[in-house]
Records
---
Amino acid sequence: MALLKILRYPDPRLHKIAKPVTEFGTERLRKLVADMADTMYDAPGVGLAATQVDVHERVIVIDVSETHDQLIVFINPEITWASEDKQVYDEGCLSVPGIYDGVERPAKVKVRAYDVEGKEFTVDADGLLAVCIQHEMDHLMGKVFVEYLSPLKRNRIKAKLQKEERGMEREAARAGGRR
Ligand code: ZN
């Protein structure tokens, strides 16, 4: 089990655009997906995009089950249909710890993607799964959910997280000094 470091907003690397995966079934891709799943379950979270662990390829892992045993791996996902009706859901993000806010998105989507071996599949998603797929696909386009919020809210969140980051750095420096 390997845990990957999750980038925190407003890290500029969260705004990089991911490239499609071109080689399937490789040891490297299997390891990336396994490490991403470990990292997501450990956090704990219901979804993680490769962008969040500084790998800029179109790979997402999601598990919205209560039992944490229904992992879905989406590689090169594309939304082929989105419903007219929308839903507002209080979203959170492993890259924006402690922040939750309402985002409006299509209530249902159809997604086409590939698994690790390159086999194509489609998913009809609604509820939390639909929210999660759209949230993670935004990451692959370099978009973080706070960008749906008002500039005022977004700046407040940015300031709060930057302050926390500085606090963590000071703490690390102090711990280093004691050694
Ligand atoms: Zn996120």
---
Amino acid sequence: MSTASALPMPMSQLSRAVTEWVESVRQLTQPAEVHWCDGTPSERHGLIAELVHDGQLLRLNPEQFPDCHLYRSHPDDVARVEHLTYICTRSQADAGPNNNWMDPQAAHAKMRELFRGAMRGRRLYVIPYCMGPVDSPLARCGVEITDSAYVAVSMLIMTHAGRAALQRIAHDGTFVRGLHSIGELDPDRRFIMHFPEELSIESFGSGYGGNALLGKKCHALRIASWQARAEGWLAEHMLIVGLRNPRRETHYIAAAFPSACGKTNLAMLIPPASLPGWEVFTVGDDIAWLHPGADGRLWAINPEAGYFGVVPGTNRQTNRNAYEMIHRDTLFTNVALTADDQPWWEGLEGTPITDWQGRPYDPARGPAAHPNSRFTVAAERNPACSPHVNDPRGVPISAIVFGGRRREVAPLVYEARDWRHGVLVGASMASETTAAATGEVGVVRRDPMAMRPFCGYNFADYWRHWLEVGARLSRPPRIFQVNWFRRDLQGRFLWPGFGENLRVLAWMIERCGGRAGAHDGGIGLLPRPADIDTRGMSLEPETLRALLSVDAELWRHELDETRTYLEQYGERLPEQMRIDLKKSAAALAG
Ligand code: OXD
Ligand code: MN
């Protein structure tokens, strides 16, 4: 690859704001060269070839995994760092108790010192990108500057990047500025700063996806949630899936789950053989931008162009679509290797010989693949990719699902009474922590709308905004909560999950069509066991009853915890939510 400081289009067609910003970053960071990404496949292949040449990427077995590569991160840089992630608004109250906060001027000063001269001897990549189809009025653009070729390649897979995005930026006259450097990968000099009032991001000291691919969590959730409030829409941590029932009607569902709780699997679900006639289409696996439409419905686009999915557990049985998808043109991070250079992770057959750190595999040192090892792959490689994935209007949403990972308390599924109750249901979500973020795994924490690490402003204002958006919808989606992770006293999962989850989604769709039954279970509307189609499944009737049961005592405790949590938001908490919480307690009392 040449030193390519060449611009991808004539200077006269470029936004001046972009060129001036790139120049100011160049002066601050002092790179050896500047590369403007044009987003072509040949550029991506060139960058990958360079990374292979200098030993940062390993080419995987070309027969079994053509055009697939392995990247090993620094062992201290394997997950999002929530404790080092900040929202820097002028007023601390705007960031809310749900965010770490730093004064914007102090944060800029701190970051300026970290970035000063940080790219000496390195190449600076300029990545213009568009989150969402480039011709969609719902899409928004950004430019990421990074000194990591791995990050640049990942952004080229995960976003609509290159010339078309630059043209759109020149036309829109606005973009999100994202400045990133891996620095020295020193955990003590690592910060992920967001300046929503300035539409900018500064990230230093990590190369991990959620900290470094700035289009993803930083832009498409934290900054976009702020923009969405100002503009009247929602930026959410949700997959989007289309389900066509045997009557040939397609319904789209948007579902929020915390990280590493199976969003990618649900978005690419394979219908069980005993439920013939169903088809599944993936629109997105992680982020949804939801806009009220002129027809009173909620319309969704996926702002991303690829998947950054958790690998362990993926196999032909659990997710055949994903398993097939990642056999070609895929960038793996922190998986193990077999003797013939095939990638390996827990959940696959075969034997690893090298662990994720490149050491001879020794089971005494823990799993061979890192529990948060990932694949990065273009969405179009997904055999179940929806034909509407690039539809500029998006897709209409029939149902919104909130899901957590709870070994007890939450039933398999229930429906909120209406949108307003649904906002409370979403705000009450709690889930066990996973390896996607640093910190202890398996601890229950409140994770409203699965947005706890991603909401770019005060949650109380966010719930108010949800209530306002709902009030504008004449045909709002129905709202449900699910829990695929309930266990028995021996710790065994009660529900098989994966493809079988379609049985629960099918009930929801029948509810949307006014065809399925439900009873008021105090907490909301629950299916009776007969309402869930379990034909062809080996599920004992008492297991299904247990899955659909609500322990009033445990739930009362849950409501108390929810109240304590929500009350931290004080006066900013919408009064409607207090009233609805009281109503919920009364309904439970009978
Ligand atoms: C992700 C996450 O990578 O939520 O999607 O951490
Ligand atoms: Mn996610």
